[in-house]
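On clarity, I found the account of how folds are encoded harder to follow than it need be. For illustration, here is how one protein appears when written out as sequence plus structure tokens:

:::
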Amino acid sequence: MQRLTGAGSAAMPHIYFGLRLWVSVSLALLVAYWLQLDDAYWAGTSASVVAQPGLGASLRKARYRAIGTILGALVIVLLIAVFPQSHAGLLIGLTLWGAICGLFATILPNFAGYGAALAGYTAAVVFAKVVADPGNVFLVAVTRTTEIGIGIFAAGLVHALTDFGDARRRLQCALANIGRDIAAGLTRTIAAQPQALDQTTVRRELIRRVTALAVTIDEAIGEPSQLRMHPGGLQAAVEALFTALSAWRGIANHLNTAASAHGRAESAVLLAAISKVAQADWLNDPVAVRDTCGIETRRVLQVPAADLSARLLVDGSARALCALERAANGMVLVAKYGSERPDEGGKRLNVPDFLPAILNALRVVVALFSVEIFWIATAWPDGPTMITFTAVAVILFSPRADAAYPSVVEYAVGTAVAVGLAAILGFAVLPLLHGGFPSLSLMLGCVMVPLGAMSAGPWRKLAFMAAVTNLLPMLALENQPSYDATHFLNAALAISAGTVAAAIFMRLLPPLPPARRIRRLLALTLRDLRRLTIRRTRFEKKSWIGLVSQRLAAMPEQASLEQEAQLLAGLSVGEASITLLEARPHLSAGDTLDRAFVCLAEANVAGARDGLARFCAEQPGGASPEAQRGMYAAVQATLIADALTRHAGFFASAA
């Protein structure tokens, strides 16, 4: 009995989503029928696509669906205006536009990428409707945009009235747990004996938890709040967490290689400072946590350091505390808007690697050209519908990398389920219905609620999502219902053929395998680092953190802990190198530093380590401002040298 009660409680959120989905679709269809739109089913389809289990995800997806729909409709109107009598020019333009959208669907993050994908296949949707009568394109584009807009509005309204959203709470909990765990891990590292200093497994697991924040942040921004006005503050918090992990890594590496610095008087002060942050109430009082981080940072910076190792320990702890202060400020932005301090992350669009996006664009070109040639050769009346659904599947799922082909196959299975359900409803149920729209809505509820509940669950959710979103296009519900078996079979065959074609081309032109993507991300980071050190490429510290943070986020799940550590080492070495290059005009022994950086750029790890050691030894002693600058520069050089020692094979590899 308890098991049944527990299962029922776990299933209730999924059932609630199924009910919201049904109400959203019914409302969209009702409005479209009231406005007497010809293809009312597109309004219901749009509502089913926009509907998501979370409020923030639904509203965020709705916003980008609206943008993508308008952009795609404008482009197809423009293409037909440019090629009014040329099917070849129109098809080439449509294909190239799909490729461009496929490229940006891979480059842009989360729902922004979905908006780019939608712009691509919205053009194909309008094309399928007007190809027989291009002169009617503007009216069709406006009508289709209106229908989709009705679906977006209906889904957004229903979700806003029935779901208050929990993404902000989940984001706050995630930030609190990660920040506290980083502080606790750093405390253990400083307090541990030399042989217990290696906590790389814990640190690398934290990397994965930080990278997973991107989706939750996007959902939180989508909820009705002030967060959408300050996305840079949340990005700054994520980058700060990566910086804190980098500082922790630097301290751990140095204590492993220079244990003599461990156990001195300054360690007790550092432990006391960081322990306060680790024991603070991150979840319920982020303002106090932020203020504690700031106070302890200033306290740590006042700790006297007897030698270079002690200075590195002090500065690294201060850097970690400063980064945790920025992360706590991001929590304040989420939990107590108005009390946060101005802070912005990197504003550049950092693309981890362009090759997967280019490959996805090429796949779109090949797939669309192939189905277009098939349509021309066969003169199949429903060929444009096949082109549309090929575009939908190949553009939408290509960004999923190695999960793209399984996703398309699962989507095709769900489409086949939709065909079967549509056939039963269209020829055995709908013709017998009486009572107008209420009867139609109840009939749809009998199907939409269970399908929606299953699509919100953990098992084959993509297949059920495909069944939900493709059911209405199969039924083609209109103001004047018709039950033409020939038309239905042709449409069902075209939709199924389009999804199957997408799966075939996903198989023929597969995405880069995970191992190669990992190697490329590491090689690109190493290449950029080497160019940075010899000034062939200029990076500000914030832009470097943003770029490498995105590469950390893009690392496939198959990446080993060592490979993630290498990328994190690249982040910290790049930060330290930028700091040294900025201070270069004011440093003595600058020529020695330049030679060390040249060795690093040439993959001469031993020469780079020796050069950095000489640079540290040549810094002046004493308490003068010049000596203080030299000590700070020596700390940065030592951080680089420690990373070269820990990951010698990585830094010596060919970029």
